[in-house]
């Protein structure tokens, strides 16, 4: 290994396990996201600014943001129209991904309730009762499955709702003041402009279809109208599809509880059959994690010379099984190829979202079975084993058997597992946080009011090859802790924080004096893992519980969000529903909107007045923490605390 290569790899990731694996990638010539990113340079500036359009066959059209070239597309579309249309389509795709996940969980709950699926069951009856109560579904004297059927029906109806009323889930879960503000905003815009501008989502499917329609050639060209619909669609994700996914998964698979786990590539075991579950939907992977423990599978593993079947997670499917079943967490998005390069993965099983197609080629260099399971995420070169929740036990068994059968083909001479792991205390659902606080948010509110904790930051999002892996996550999180700001979050950020040891109890020492004392007293880390991407709904629920308790709007609270290292269209939807819920959101890397000055102004300035939440961008993590702290302090003084 020469020094230049090592320096390059240090530049690619701050995670020592990743740096070790990238040295192997360099030595062996394994393709990876960093190497392919370098080959993509220079990337298209029009794309980065959002000013390219190819929605009709007169295009593609490009607007020169510096005014030297064309100022309009062939049809006359301006840069702002093009930027806003592109943004809206990102929000629609992101929302649809989360919400389609929620739909499948709702359909499964319906099947369990009507007895047509016996591979799953109601695991958390208390959560079922809590969700039913929230939705005003009667529970007294009724059978559990009858109640479950009603909950499933309300959820499924939210997808196809065709009237003009807001989504039932949103109406029942969104804090009263936020709901009233969005409703009043719709009415005042109607009175002042005469045009309908909706913010309260009606049907989950409808809001995404609405964007596909209004961004068709020759429809909505008004940047404000397009941005407003982007927010409405995203709210149908946060307070609709994602919320349904979270709540109903808790009913079916159990609400996560606080537990201690290990994170990073060191959770792979040299002597075991390693099955990595990756993607987002835990319905299958929860089964795989459960069945891997069976005596039959243990014996089958032993029969091929392995110690056991070791199921570990990646990305958000990983977060789901980590929080509920305590499996090890192999890594976040950028770790997916690195895990295969260890040579110790016998099967990587993927469902949907955030899966690199490159894994197929890479896996073919090893004995690793790369198994796709969703008709919505087929990848050439993989082994496809179609998941069907009505035969979940049988399919999970077949997948585990495939991994066990692959184990003897492992080339032990090529196995290298970096020894890095960190301990992480995870599983901070709203239920667990309230339990730790004695059943009410009041102690947390008291701590915020008396300044022991200045505020709460919610961090979400991915890895992005444009940012040194995990660097922004680590520095921003540590900076916020120092400033007595409690950090909560989800997704690949949560994995980054876990790998960095920030979810270990020892991380209390990194916190400012107030936060440190609180965490010591409660026996919790200062960084709380709330789940997967869809579990951003748990953050909304926590914010909502505090807002309702104080009878204020979420936008009054000292809360702030960030999506550093964001990558996906889902992150756009999450950011937009945070903003629509009244929470300012930091973003890095730059979103593709800067080519549209009006869109940029709406999202970074006007939204503050209108929605109480807005976007801001900052490249430097310490400066981002400064800005986030400033927002928290401004909100504190507005509250008079
Ligand atoms: Fe060009 Fe207008 Fe067609 Fe877009 S819609 S590709 S700007 S002509
Ligand atoms: S997995 S959306 S890369 S967080 Fe949810 Fe990670 Fe971002 Fe996918």
Fill in the keyword field for this structure.
641 residues; alpha/beta; Substrate Binding Domain Of Dnak, Chain:A, Domain 2; six-stranded parallel beta sheet; 26 helices; 16 strands; 11% strand; disordered N terminus; binds iron/sulfur cluster; binds Broken Fe4S4 cluster; 4 iron, 4 sulfur cluster binding; oxidoreductase
Task: Describe this protein's structure.
- [Ni-4Fe-4S] cluster binds at residues 280, 316, 354, 462, 492, 533.
- Its cofactor is [4Fe-4S] cluster.
- The protein has a six-stranded parallel sheet. The protein has a six-stranded parallel sheet with strand order 13-12-11-14-15-16, sandwiched between helices. A two-stranded antiparallel sheet has the order 1-2.
- The termini are far apart.
- The chain is globular and about 75 Å long.
- It has 641 residues and is of the alpha/beta class.
- The model is unreliable at 1-7 (pLDDT under 50).
- The protein is built from 26 helices and 16 strands.
- The chain has five domains: 3-43, no CATH class; 44-77, no CATH class; 79-253, Substrate Binding Domain Of Dnak, Chain:A, Domain 2, CATH 1.20.1270; 265-414, Rossmann fold; 430-639, Rossmann fold (3-Layer(aba) Sandwich), CATH 3.40.50.
- Helix 1 (3-12) packs across helix 2 and helix 11 (223-253) packs across helix 23 (536-550).
- Residues 53-56, 58-61, 73-75, 77, 82, 217 line the site of iron/sulfur cluster (SF4).
